[in-house]
Write a structure and sequence with these properties.
Layout: H1 18-32, H2 48-58, E1 70-75, H3 78-99, H4 102-108, H5 119-122, E2 125-132, E3 134-137, E4 140-143, H6 147-164, E5 168-169, H7 178-183, E6 190-199, H8 215-218
Antiparallel strand pairs: 1-2, 2-6, 3-4, 5-6
Helix pairs in contact: 2-6
């Protein structure tokens, strides 16, 4: 770029003709539409290299001022997974028995969920996504920007990478999640954002029979 003191590099992106572009967009949608939230996991372990590649893929997400304000904590230790389950179920039990509104519970009913979260121990890996609300550089606070938006984008990339690897996941958000900061001994600039069990599905896994919104329900075109 002209008159920019910071280094730039050349960038090229492959493009396709109209027919191939249409076909690729359709194929990708049909593939991604097979992604489902799963609560029934196999205990089969995941190779660490697979997990690393998934996290690196998540980190290709755009972020405010390229600050990349996320930390991914991967828990495979069974003792720590058990501690996380105990703490999460304590919060969930209180939520299902008083914190959640009647409407909220009615909306959850088709999913068949309750405060019991055995998948937190059964899934071979738990990925806890933390948002870095600021950076600490030589004990000085440095701002991060659009933190929630940036971490949300990275989490979407993460779920897509998990699906691409032939694995399944669940986005779990026990509230509050402060216990994760304590159990994982995270610094004061990090806040838990998502708790994602990851693994292989059981051979006979069932999921709710749900339908996604169609294009007319989610998009408006101004032509």
């Amino acid at each position: 770029m002209m008159n920019n003191p910071f280094p730039y590099i050349n960038y090229t992106k492959e493009t396709y003709g109209p027919e191939e572009t249409l076909q690729r967009s359709s194929d990708f949608y049909n593939w991604l539409d097979k992604r489902r939230t799963v609560r029934e996991f196999s205990e089969k372990k995941i190779d660490k290299n697979i997990l690393e590649n998934i996290l690196l893929s998540a980190s290709t997400a755009p972020s405010g001022a390229h600050k990349q304000p996320w930390t991914f904590c991967v828990v495979t230790n069974p003792i720590l997974k058990k501690e996380i389950r105990i703490a999460a179920e304590k919060e969930e039990q209180e939520s299902y028995n008083g914190r959640m509104s009647k409407e909220w519970l009615e909306d959850l009913a088709p999913l068949g969920t309750d405060w019991n979260k055995p998948f937190l121990e059964i899934a071979p890996a738990l990925i806890i996504v933390f948002k870095r609300v600021y950076e600490l550089v030589n004990n000085d606070k440095r701002n991060n920007y659009y933190v929630a938006e940036s971490v949300g984008l990275a989490s979407g990339f993460l779920l897509t990478a998990i699906h691409n690897a032939g694995l399944v996941a669940l986005t779990h958000t026990p509230s509050p999640m402060n216990f994760l900061t304590k159990l994982l001994e995270r610094p004061e600039n990090e806040r838990p954002f998502l708790l994602i069990p990851v693994g292989y599905p059981l051979e006979k896994t069932q999921v709710p029979d749900l339908q996604r919104k169609n294009i007319n329900d989610i998009a408006i075109f101004y032509e």
